[in-house]
User: Which sequence fits this backbone?
């Protein structure tokens, strides 16, 4: 996730407050990992789910916004689907 938000293509589309939320959550998760190295696997999974619950909606919102900016449709040189059931022999 840290690499994702440092990618210029993505970082430029994230609002500063959302980027800060993600960075703070990552820092908190890393700090937790450093202090809980002997935790059980389910505790690690719970921490990962907490981080994903915060980050995924922000990233999804960013991609939805980017999708609205993209020009839709297929390229003109993309072949159209043939309406048939398969190849004819």
Assistant:
């Amino acid at each position: 996730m840290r690499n994702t938000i440092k990618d210029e293509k993505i970082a430029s589309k994230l609002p500063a407050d959302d980027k800060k939320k993600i960075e703070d959550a990552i820092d908190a998760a890393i700090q937790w990992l450093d202090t809980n190295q002997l935790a059980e696997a389910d505790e690690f999974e719970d921490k990962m789910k907490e981080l994903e619950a915060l980050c995924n909606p922000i990233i999804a919102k960013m991609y939805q916004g980017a999708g609205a900016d993209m020009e839709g449709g297929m390229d003109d040189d993309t072949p159209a689907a043939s309406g048939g059931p398969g190849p004819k022999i």
User: Anything to note?
Assistant: The CA atoms of residues 5 and 82 lie 41 Å apart.
